[in-house]
Design a protein that fits this description.
Length: 219
C-alpha cells in the first residue's frame, strides 16, 4: 500500500503551515460535504440521434466567478434521462474539479444553468462533479478550494508524472476548514464581488476586440 510520491512523506514548508492551521480550526472531510458524480459518456462523433448537451471543457473555466455557457455540443443517449445518469447533468451550485490532466482546476455552476434534458450542461471525462450538501454553501466551499490553502492541499494529492491525476479516495479525505457563521456572509460577499469584477473585465475585453477591428478589418 506504499505510495512512491515523495510529497506524501516529506511535507514542504507550505504544507507544514497548513497542517498547523488545520489543527487550530474546525475541519470536516470533503466526503462529508459533497456528493461525487461521474460524467456520462457521450455518443460517438458519428452519432446522428441523441440528446444534445453542452460539454464543459477546461477552456471554459473562468479565472473568477461562475462558469459561462460552454460552447461544445455533444450527443448523449436518450436513456440518460430515465436512468441514474440523469444526476450527471449539472445543477446550480455544482463544483467541477479536473481530476486528469490539469488536475485541481475548479469551476462553479451558476443559478441559471438549464435543467436536466436537452441543452443541459455536462462535464467531460477528465472531470468530476461535486454536489454540495445543504450543510455548506457551494460558494464558500468553492472559495476554500480555490484559495492558497485549498490549492496547496489539492497539489498534495496529485500523483502521476506523465498525466497528473487525483484519486477519488484521496479527494474524499481532503480536509475542509469549516468557517464560523460570522465569516460565511463575508466569504459569499467576496465571491460576488469577484463575479462583478470578472463581468467588467469580460466587457472591457470585448470592447478592446471591437476597437481592434475599427480600421483595416477584413469583412
Amino acid at each position: 500500500d506504499s505510495n512512491l510520491e515523495v510529497s506524501h512523506y516529506l511535507l514542504p514548508p507550505a504544507q507544514k503551515v497548513i497542517q498547523h492551521l488545520l489543527s487550530e480550526n474546525e475541519t470536516r472531510k470533503l466526503s462529508d460535504l459533497v456528493e461525487y458524480l461521474r460524467p456520462s459518456k457521450p455518443l460517438s462523433k458519428n452519432a446522428i440521434k441523441g440528446i444534445r448537451a453542452f460539454e464543459v471543457s477546461l477552456s471554459d473555466f473562468p479565472n473568477y466567478g461562475y462558469l459561462p455557457t460552454p460552447k461544445k455540443n455533444i450527443l448523449l443517449s436518450p436513456k440518460v434521462i430515465i436512468s441514474k445518469e440523469k444526476k450527471s447533468f449539472l445543477c446550480p451550485g455544482d463544483i467541477i474539479i479536473v481530476v486528469k490532466g490539469s488536475a485541481g482546476k475548479l469551476a462553479i455552476i451558476p443559478d441559471n444553468v438549464p435543467p436536466p434534458g436537452p441543452d443541459a450542461w455536462v462535464v467531460n471525462q477528465s472531470s468530476l462533479i461535486m454536489r454540495p450538501h445543504y450543510s455548506i454553501n457551494p460558494r464558500v466551499l468553492f472559495m476554500y478550494l480555490c484559495s492558497d490553502v485549498g490549492q496547496t492541499l489539492l497539489k498534495g494529492i496529485i500523483s502521476g508524472a506523465t498525466v497528473p491525476l487525483i484519486q477519488l479516495q484521496q479527494l474524499k479525505n481532503l480536509d475542509i476548514i469549516v468557517p464560523k457563521l460570522a465569516e460565511v456572509a463575508s466569504i459569499i460577499n467576496t465571491f460576488e464581488k469577484q463575479v462583478q469584477i470578472q463581468a467588467q473585465i469580460n466587457n472591457l475585453q470585448k470592447e478592446l476586440q471591437d476597437l481592434s477591428k475599427t480600421h483595416w478589418a477584413i469583412p
